[in-house]
Amino acid sequence: MAIEALGSPVTFENAMRVVRPGGTLSSLGVYSGKLGVPLEAIAAGLGDHKIVTTLCPGGKERMRRLLELVRYGRVDLRMLLAHGFSLDQIVEAYQVFGERRDGVIKVAIRP
């Protein structure tokens, strides 16, 4: 088994390469851009690999609980929002985030 949680196409492809025949890749990452499955990693389709994807452990319920913590001010996430953009700058925001420019962690899009 391999776990990919970074959300980088390179780490996904590398994780595919280390999964043994009959093994499972658990992918938790959120990817931007093109994501490929290297053909040599799947043994020409004979490797019997399994790829499992999910948002996060606990899925929608966990996300609902996290959003409630933010909603009621129980956790302050402002330190993660290093960059803010208006809605008309959304293309630039995705470029900054996708290219990891200027030490970006997360971006905020404001209407």
Question: What key phrases describe this protein's structure?
Answer:
alpha/beta, 2 domains, 3-stranded parallel sheet, two-stranded parallel sheet, 3 helices, 29% helix
How helical, in percent, are the residues?
A: 25-40%
SSE string, helices as H and strands as E: EHEEHEHE
User: What would you say the CATH architecture of the largest domain is?
Assistant: 3-Layer(aba) Sandwich
Overall 3D shape: globular
**Major beta sheet summary:** 3 strands, parallel
What do you see in this structure?
It is a single chain. The strands form 2 sheets. The protein has a 3-stranded parallel beta sheet with strand order 1-2-3, covered by helices on one side. A two-stranded parallel sheet has the order 4-5. It folds into 2 domains: 2-53, NAD(P)-binding Rossmann-like Domain (Rossmann fold); 60-110, no CATH class. It contains 3 helices and 5 strands; from the N terminus they run βαββαβαβ. 29% of the residues lie in helices and 20% in strands. With 111 residues, it is α/β, with parallel strands linked by helices.
Present the secondary structure layout.
Layout: E1 2-4, H1 9-18, E2 24-27, E3 50-53, H2 59-71, E4 81-86, H3 90-98, E5 106-110
Parallel strand pairs: 1-2, 2-3, 4-5
Can you summarize this structure?
The chain is built from 3 helices and 5 strands, in the order βαββαβαβ.
